[in-house]
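Blinded run. Sample ID left blank on purpose so nobody reads anything into the name before looking at the predicted structure. Input follows.
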Amino acid sequence: MIKPICKDIHFLQKKSQPAIKSDLPIVVDLIDTLNSYNKTCIGMAANMIGINKRIIAVNIDDKIIIPLINPIIEKASKPYKAEENCLSLTGSKNTTRYQSIVVSYLDSNFKKHKQTFTGLTAQIIQHEIDHCNGVLI
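Blinded prediction complete.
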């Protein structure tokens, strides 16, 4: 189900709670909502649709949306400056991101993964994990 985008700064600044198997319907709603914003958005965190859980969805190369449940950045390298926008916020902001990250996460079957992401995909994941941690750009 497509959900409205949360713009409540106080809610967005709360640290998200770990997701559990019964939270899987949130993944569907998150992907549906991200799909509905596919022209302006390439990543989304559950708190952006008003749900305080550590779930993100990322559009990989404009081809496939993957969910990452309880994602954690294990390693980051090659910092650079980036300018980002967010559906939940007005305007763009400067931030530091990393060109390469190693992320541990669960997929929608709650199977563990550890994967390296680079470039724009890594930047999107960092932005969305920041959302999970209550960090806004």
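Unblinding after everyone has recorded impressions. Residues 9-132 form a domain with the Peptide Deformylase fold (CATH 3.90.45.10).
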